Amino acid sequence: MAASPVQISRLGGIGAATLVVALIAAALGAVAWRAEGGYSLGPADWAAVRFTLWQAFLSALISVALAVPVARALARRRFVGRGVLIALLGAPFILPVIVAVLGILAVFGRGGWVNQLLGHWGFEPLSIYGLGGVLLAHVFFNLPLATRLILQGWQGIPAERFRLAAQLGLTPRIVFRVLEWPVLLRVVPGALALIFVICLASFAVALTLGGGPRATTIELAIYQAFLFDFDLGRAAMLSLMQLGMAGAAAVLALWLVPQVSLTGGMGRMVRRWDAPTGVLRWVDAALIALAAAFLLVPLLSVVLSGLPGITALPANVFRAAWSSIWVSCVSVCVLLALALPMAGWIGTSRRGGVEAAGLLGFAASPLMIGTGWFILIYPYVAPSSLALPVTALVNALMALPFALRILVPGVRDVVAAQGRLSAALGLRGWRLWLWVILPGVRPQVGFAAGLAAALSMGDLGVIALFADQDHATLPLQMYRLMGAYQMQAAAGAALLLILLAFGAFWICDAWGRRGAVSE
Prior knowledge:
globular; 23 helices; MetI-like fold; mainly alpha
């Protein structure tokens, strides 16, 4: 890579990276210090470790296995609403986990639509709690992600290659082996590793659908050590175990996730040469319809069940909603304060230390960081008094890797296009940022801010360790309503949470696109 024509001050990027490392290292140091007491993991803890690995492996395997035929069907079929459906595949990523769990319960739970049909036909009801429920929820979240990753790979194959295959009369089996199988070899390992990492740190799903000691993850065991036993030594040891597992898996995922790009084509044309008709056409249609129903029906159930209850929500739900809005706003501000200088330094430098610091969020579990900061805060201040600021800070750290992946390419493009002119004009420092870089990356800034706002709005993690009755966020309040079997109120709170999360994302993303600098 050639040297950048402009050099952004390293102080901001290195300072932000140092702060990120210090915050995570302080939490890790507190956890390690607390675990020094010699606490040894018991049989229940090792069972949690085994279950965590097993459910993450199965979730990744099932999600990717189902995503391959769905992505292939989407790649070779054109129909009304295709673009909308592909866009909706990104919705579960910013959908609050607790909302999705409520929707899954409405469809697959004991009193859900599926069990009502099974009972009508004389079959035994299905139990959604335990391993099956955890896998179902993880597939709901990660099937769309895997489909998007694999679809990106398939759409990267130049259309001329399929045209040539049709002219040569190659059979579908040979086309798959020659053109599509190499793409799967590139994309599938990365998708498997990425989903495995995501499922390792899944807390809300295990909390709501785990179903007892036989279906307890490490993060849920950390939470239980806090809530029921207040055993900080056990929580610290489990946090170290989680960090080791998640860190190793995150490094593997970052190494395997590819930049899918097959050059040599003249653009992506509509594929008519590898879209067989007859039975296979109906098979593709059925796959797309089933995937869309699996994604949309739980969301529709939340909306339908939440409409009657949203006008009769208790006052504590609205207080929790304001707390969530506050946490989301603070989290976005902290994220941008860290991500922008780091992205500027990464985008104009060959050194990877700053980028490595920003990607620590992939390895560090939110509950591990929360455990460490609880240990640091507890002797001096009531942790509940800092519940919202700590939650906002941890959410910003967790969103930082995604923000850097969004911002860094934009910074590089702006520098490549405007760097020489900026250097010739002597623009540097805040003037370079204000007049050149920020206008050029405004769409990326808006998208990253919207993503962080939505993820923070729906997070149910660190707040569960710190909060009391006066400092709950909306996801935590919704979980409490579900635990008290106030399902109508919980459904109303879920609908409110959907509106807030998607509204926050839309506002930030629209702000970024509205002022975008067009080339």
